[in-house]
Design brief:
It is a single chain. By secondary structure, the chain is mostly helical. It is 71% helix and 0% strand. The chain contains eleven helices and no strands. The longest helix has 30 residues. The N and C termini lie far apart (48 Å).
Length: 239
C-alpha cells in the first residue's frame, strides 16, 4: 500500500462505509420497510441492547490509555452520552425505554439471558479490539458514526410509518444521536487524518473500520438467521 494523502484516506474510509455499512443488510431493510413483526422487532431491540450497554465500557478501555487530558476530556463525553450523568439519563437508559415500549421485561433485557450467541461474541470482540489494539486503530473503529445519521433517519421514519406499536417516545434514543454522532465522528476523522502518517498506519485504520462494519453486519446476520429464517439457538429469546 502506498502512502495516501489525508483526503485520499478519507475517501477510502467513506468508500468502506458505502460498501460495508449495515444499512445495506437485508435485515436492516426489513426492519425499516415494515417487513418484520412485533416479535422480530423485539428480538432486534433486545440484542442491540447489549451493544448499547457495552459501548461505555469499550470507551472506558480507550479512555484509560489516552495520553493527554485533552483527548481524555473528548472521549469522556462519549461515556457520559451513553451512561448519562445521573440515573435514568443517557443513551443506555433511553434504549431501555425502547425495549419497555416494545413490551419486553426490563429485568429480562438487562439480565442478557436472551442474547444470541453471535451478538455476545461480536460485541465482546469489538470491546476487546478497542482494548487491545493501538489508539489509532481504536479511534478509527468508531468511524462507523460517519454513516449513522443516515441510518437513524431511515430507522425512525420507517418504523414510525410502518409499526403501530412504536412511537416517537419509544424511539427517543435516536434523537440525540443525530447531533452526538456527527460531533464524535468529526473528531475521530480529524484525529485519523492527522495521525495516520505511514502506509502501515493507514492500512491499520482502514482495516479497523472494516472490522467494525463486520461486527455490525454479523449481528444482523444472526438476527436474520434466528428470527426471520426461524433458527433460534438454545437459550436465546423466544417470542
Amino acid at each position: 500500500m502506498t502512502l495516501l494523502t489525508p483526503d485520499q484516506l478519507e475517501e477510502r474510509l467513506r468508500q468502506i462505509g458505502a460498501e460495508r455499512y449495515h444499512n445495506r443488510h437485508p435485515f436492516h431493510r426489513k426492519l425499516h420497510d415494515g417487513k418484520l413483526n412485533r416479535a422480530q422487532v423485539q428480538a432486534w431491540a433486545l440484542n442491540r441492547y447489549y451493544y448499547q450497554a457495552r459501548i461505555p465500557a469499550k470507551d472506558a478501555t480507550l479512555l484509560a490509555r489516552l495520553p493527554t487530558a485533552e483527548l481524555r476530556r473528548e472521549w469522556r463525553r462519549r461515556i457520559e452520552d451513553h451512561d448519562g450523568t445521573e440515573p435514568g439519563t443517557g443513551g443506555v437508559a433511553r434504549w431501555l425505554m425502547l425495549t419497555d415500549g416494545l413490551g419486553l421485561d426490563r429485568d429480562y433485557v438487562e439480565s442478557l439471558d436472551g442474547l444470541l450467541p453471535a451478538t455476545r461474541f461480536s460485541v465482546d470482540a469489538y470491546v476487546n479490539f478497542v482494548r487491545d489494539r493501538s489508539i489509532l486503530a481504536a479511534i478509527a473503529s468508531s468511524l462507523t458514526e460517519l454513516f449513522s445519521p443516515t441510518i437513524i433517519s431511515e430507522r425512525v421514519s420507517g418504523m414510525l410509518r410502518h409499526y403501530d406499536f412504536v412511537s416517537e417516545k419509544t424511539l427517543a434514543y435516536f434523537t440525540p444521536r443525530l447531533t452526538q454522532a456527527p460531533r464524535d465522528s468529526d473528531f475521530a476523522l480529524a484525529y485519523v487524518r492527522e495521525n495516520a502518517r505511514t502506509p502501515e498506519q493507514q492500512k491499520e485504520v482502514l482495516e479497523a473500520l472494516e472490522f467494525k462494519c463486520s461486527v455490525l453486519w454479523t449481528m444482523l446476520d444472526a438476527l436474520d438467521y434466528a428470527y426471520v429464517d426461524g433458527h433460534i439457538p438454545p437459550g436465546a429469546f423466544v417470542p
